[in-house]
């Protein structure tokens, strides 16, 4: 039984297979010729593998940068890391996590079929992370066995459909009407950024309309501008480490000249971003046409909810501004936590890049440059405070010194942990009941069959 669960978990937590499967089903539903089914199925798979390869390059180059900053500026604390905490969860609650994942994905499909929440969540690794969080929090509240799996699966499946819908009006602004949705559990931070942008960015030009003189026109090339910004980040970290802790430089660079190491690392990071962009274009080229088969034949009006990196090409300049602003917010949040005696949450470069960049894109869509900077900055503050607040909840199960990094994980960890801790399991059942009501009401109120909130504003 466990081997079967592991097999399904491996498939369903791998977005490349999930996207390929969805594309395959959609193309079959459209009665597409065999050779086009083959290419249309492989396209999203290869595109996502390319996106993952680029993300891997980015992450591999962000981790040394985080070490340089910690050691160079003598900062000690907790670095939020989804992968680290899920690896701990797997050892403690492996079967429960896999079961919640499978039930959650099935419930997401049922919700898309029978309610107006037509959003199919395709970011499988984030579903896996959320399943880990739910198994950990529910386990701390003394859930076990079938009740844990059913409650966790219901919450996962429901939020997978609800979270894209909440901010779909903002997502449509980001994509200029392309019918994709946000399928990433940093979503509340992105929507908050868009809302902040709408309040502070009146009259502010888009980040993509920055006026650059001819001699600086090379900065319009996203790969080059990203590389230059990251080289500066690395050089600052290297110089700080050379002053305080030069042995760290030797360990990270493998004996290479530290300044050459900094330059190569920053430029390699930019190559990773370029690979992500190429993968995104490949995904969208094949997935969206294939999804029409799902939307017309199997789940009418279905909308694919995809990874946050898919949105990077829509506003490449906002990606850099968002990352820098979010990281600054994370640093200030860390200092505030230190001043009030809290656990220091050291800014994790990976969440601040991916989530901060996306927050910048959403802030830019409603408030231009001011919106991108302000929205991503606030996102960065939350990426410090939320992980700190969720640490005690995870600590009850022995998850010491590690915590989830993204916005939605923090919100759900705190919400479930605090309510469950105050009024017990009945509080969790009340949350599930409220989610079910939220799913059913729009279908009862109106006879429309379109996806809720999937309407482009005039």
From TrEMBL:
An annotated GO cellular component: plasma membrane
Record keywords: Cell membrane, Membrane, Phosphotransferase system, Sugar transport, Transmembrane, Transmembrane helix, Transport
Main location: membrane
Gene Ontology biological-process annotations: phosphoenolpyruvate-dependent sugar phosphotransferase system
Cross-referenced NCBIfam families: PRK09410.1-2, PRK09410.1-3, PRK12997.1-5
Alphabetical list of PANTHER family matching this protein: ASCORBATE-SPECIFIC PTS SYSTEM EIIC COMPONENT
Name of the protein in its database record: Ascorbate-specific PTS system EIIC component
Organism whose genome encodes this protein: Streptococcus urinalis 2285-97
Source organism phylogeny: Bacteria, Bacillati, Bacillota, Bacilli, Lactobacillales
């Amino acid at each position: 039984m466990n081997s079967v669960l592991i097999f399904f978990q491996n498939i369903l937590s791998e977005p490349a297979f999930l996207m390929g499967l969805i594309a395959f089903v959609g193309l079959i539903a459209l009665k597409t010729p065999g050779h086009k089914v083959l290419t249309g199925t492989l396209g999203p798979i290869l595109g996502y593998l390319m996106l993952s390869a680029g993300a891997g390059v980015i992450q591999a180059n962000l981790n040394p940068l985080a070490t340089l900053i910690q050691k160079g500026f003598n900062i000690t604390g907790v670095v939020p890391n989804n992968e680290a905490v899920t690896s701990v969860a797997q050892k403690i609650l492996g079967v429960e996590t896999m079961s919640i994942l499978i039930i959650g994905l099935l419930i997401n499909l049922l919700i898309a079929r029978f309610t107006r929440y037509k959003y199919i969540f395709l970011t499988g690794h984030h579903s896996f992370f959320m399943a880990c969080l739910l198994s950990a929090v529910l386990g701390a509240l003394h859930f076990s066995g079938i009740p844990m799996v059913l409650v966790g699966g219901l919450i996962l499946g429901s939020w997978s459909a609800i979270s894209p819908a909440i901010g779909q009006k903002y997502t449509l602004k980001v994509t200029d009407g392309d019918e994709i949705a946000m399928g990433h559990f940093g979503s509340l931070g992105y929507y908050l950024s868009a809302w902040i942008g709408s309040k502070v960015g009146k009259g502010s030009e888009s980040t993509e309309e920055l006026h650059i003189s001819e001699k600086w026109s090379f900065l319009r090339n996203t790969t080059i501008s990203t590389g230059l910004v990251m080289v500066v980040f690395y050089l600052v970290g290297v110089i700080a480490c050379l002053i305080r802790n030069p042995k760290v430089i030797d360990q990270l660079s493998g004996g290479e000249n530290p300044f050459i190491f900094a330059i190569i690392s920053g430029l390699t990071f930019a190559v990773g971003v370029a690979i992500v962009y190429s993968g995104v274009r490949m995904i969208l080229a094949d997935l969206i046409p294939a999804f029409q088969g799902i939307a017309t034949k199997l789940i009418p009006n279905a909308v694919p909810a995809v990874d946050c990196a898919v949105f990077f090409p829509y506003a490449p300049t906002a990606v850099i501004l968002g990352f820098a602003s979010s990281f600054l917010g994370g640093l200030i949040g860390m200092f505030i936590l230190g001043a009030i005696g809290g656990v220091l949450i050291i800014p994790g470069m990976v969440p601040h890049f991916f989530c901060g960049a996306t927050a910048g894109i959403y802030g830019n869509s409603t408030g231009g440059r001011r919106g991108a900077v302000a929205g991503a900055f606030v996102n960065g503050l939350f990426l410090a405070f939320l992980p700190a607040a969720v640490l005690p909840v995870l600590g009850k199960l022995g998850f010491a010194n590690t915590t989830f990094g993204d916005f939605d994980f923090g919100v759900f960890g705190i919400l479930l942990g605090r309510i469950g801790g105050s009024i017990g399991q009945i509080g969790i059942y009340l949350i599930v009941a409220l989610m079910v009501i939220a799913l059913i009401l729009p279908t009862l109120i109106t006879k429309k069959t379109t996806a809720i909130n999937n309407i482009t504003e005039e």
